[in-house]
Amino acid sequence: MSPTPRLLQHGRLLPELETALAAEFDVHRLAEEADPAAFLAAQGQHFTGLVTSAGVGADAALIAALPRLQVIASFGVGVDLVDLDAAAAGGIQVSCTPDVLNDCVADLAMGLMLDAARGISAADRYVRQGGWLKARYPLGHRVSGRRLGIVGLGRIGRTIARRAGGFDMDIRYHARRPVADVAWRHEPELVALAEWADFLVVIVAGGAGTRHLVDARVLDALGPEGFLINVARGSVIDEAALVAALQAGRIAGAGLDVFEAEPHVPPELFELDNVVLLPHIASGTVQTRRAMAELVLENLRAFYSDGRVLTPPA
Ligand code: NAP
Ligand code: 8YV
Predict the structure, then answer these.
(1) Which domain holds residue 56?
(2) pLDDT of 260-293, one tens digit each?
(3) What residues are paired with 7 via a beta bridge?
(4) What's the pTM?
(5) What are the φ/ψ torsions at residue 274 (nearest 5 degrees)?
(6) Minimal CA–CA distance to 151: which of 98, 194, 96, 211?
(7) Which of 39, 94, 151, 227 could be bridged to 33 by S-S, CB 3.0 to 4.6 A?
(8) Is 280 considered catalytic here?
(9) Is residue 311 domain-resident?
(10) Active site annotation includes 174
(11) 144 in Cβ contact with 110 (< 8 Å)
């Protein structure tokens, strides 16, 4: 019988995933070490697997500290914090958790769009604070039938587009290449898409290739009647430019699930009622997180039984 694989766990995970991992593998939690660097220097050579999450990742230094590492299993679909080049150079396979979260992330994108435009959260605050007793709440903006620009028509982008079709929205998208099997119109220029759109929903991959893709020029093209929704990564948007555009009314509003320096949110945004702020919860439902956890386990089982992970990054 082959020995139980030794896994290093980087960062905390869903409690039920931690329990399931510990039942099947020999798991050590790096977060429990008082001196992680000293621990890695002394014990790093014993681990063949690393379990991490989208928000924690695995950088080149950690990968280098695990000389016998063969597999990295990440909880989450975004791998912008996993150094894929360092993994590839070491012949290390990487897995993530695509598709099982498409529905919940798309649902939340629609929720943010409705909330930002109709002022659901802001109106709720208004009622609680007694504002309704003094005056009527200001009018919001229509969502149904309006123009939606989607930045990134991957697995989640398409799922958002399908939902927006149910709201009779006119849909176009921006990605580096047109997507073959869809009827929605591809817009090669992001600025042109922003100029056309009433709502711009950002759902591209994060990382160096998309850093500040949405900059002041794109925000100005979206304009004073346009809404920005970000369920991708904070790094995709120039946050300082976004704060300035919102403060000056150069865009109408925003719905943000992600930020550049999570969990820190620019405090200027706390003052603005036309911005909905969420703590990175787009995939955060009991059902979806359970499915993500199961996929982490399935990837590890597949790797240790057949030598291949099931769902590597796209
Ligand atoms: P995906 O299927 O890989 O789709 C990514 C899309 O981004 C593709 O359409 C790709 O098209 C486009 N893209 C990549 N680089 C681009 C660039 N430089 N310019 C324009 N478009 C670019 O990924 P997914 O599964 O839909 O997930 C998308 C991202 O959502 C994840 O990477 C993750 O960061 C984020 N996410 C966030 C949450 C949350 O909790 N808020 C949850 C899940 C996922 P081309 O390659 O043709 O350009
Ligand atoms: C994760 C995410 O839930 O999948 C991703 O890329 O951003 C979220 O779904 C979260 O980061 C957990 O680590």
Answers:
(1) 6-100+287-306
(2) 999 999 999 999 999 999 999 999 999 999 999 9
(3) 27, 49
(4) 0.98
(5) -95, 15
(6) 194
(7) 39
(8) yes
(9) no
(10) no
(11) no
